[in-house]
Automatic annotation (TrEMBL):
This is Phosphonatase-like hydrolase. It comes from Amycolatopsis halotolerans. Gene3D superfamilies: HAD superfamily/HAD-like (3.40.50.1000). PANTHER family: PHOSPHOGLYCOLATE PHOSPHATASE, PHOSPHONOACETALDEHYDE HYDROLASE. It comes from the Bacteria. InterPro entries: HAD-like_hydrolase_sf, HAD-like_sf, HAD_sf, PhnX-like. Pfam families: Hydrolase (PF00702).
């Protein structure tokens, strides 16, 4: 059903955006702030969990790690502020990403960018990239009732807001297993994993990828069949 795709939902960091380690640095700052420094006994396990859950809503990651009242929220605030300040300096489009979005829209498809960051961080990132008008829509968990990946809510929010006729007319692309799982849960006919970010091909396919691409630049040709 690739030719019938009306909407393409693209992840940002690792898929369309290069952050030069800003996400990892922000997680490190957040962990330090809530008492998990780099030399602590539990840090290795925490870092492994963070890597495994890349792509998931950040606040949900912190809530799973730190169930005590207020700790996850503090970690998330530090993460967001650290990432926003660093991303303004280092974020850049991944090679071919802007061109791919332009091609997808030229093919008559709607394009939605999605991110697990807060609305404030999302907007700062868009301004940094000069992308405020690049896509038809940009969503974060706050736009979808608060639930991010791996829930289908952000994809379904885009379907509703952009008037898409059928969830099967959706393609989702991302660099993590949670992007793939989100797309499949939303009913998308295409869940395209890209190898420019967090997870490898085995992980992407284990979470439901229908395609694995070298980068998002290959997606327009795939959807043309």
């Amino acid at each position: 059903m690739t030719r019938g795709v009306e909407l393409v939902v693209l992840d940002m960091a690792g898929t369309t955006v290069r952050d030069d380690g800003a996400v990892e640095a922000a997680f490190s700052a957040a962990l330090e702030a809530v008492g998990v420094p780099s030399d602590s006994p539990e840090r290795e396990d925490v870092d492994a969990y963070v890597r495994d859950t890349m792509g998931q809503s950040k606040i949900e990651v912190f809530r799973a790690l730190f169930p005590a009242a207020g700790v996850a929220e503090k970690a998330n605030r530090v993460f967001e502020s650290t990432f926003a300040s660093q991303a303004v300096e280092v974020a850049a489009p991944l090679p071919g990403a802007e061109e791919a979005i332009d091609k997808l829209r030229a093919q008559g498809r709607r394009v939605c960018l999605s991110t697990g960051f807060s609305a404030r961080t999302r907007d700062a990132l868009l301004r940094r990239l000069g992308w405020t008008e690049l896509a038809d829509l940009v969503v974060c968990p706050a736009d979808a009732g608060g639930r991010g990946r791996p829930f289908p809510d952000m994809v379904l929010t885009a379907v509703l807001r952009l008037g898409i006729t059928d969830v099967r007319a959706v393609a989702v692309a991302g660099d993590t297993g949670f992007d793939m799982l989100t797309g499949r849960r939303a009913g998308a006919s295409v869940a395209a994993g890209v190898l420019t970010g967090a997870h490898d091909e085995a992980t992407l396919r284990a979470h439901g990828a229908t395609h694995v691409l070298g980068s998002v630049a290959e997606l327009p040709a795939v959807l043309e069949g």
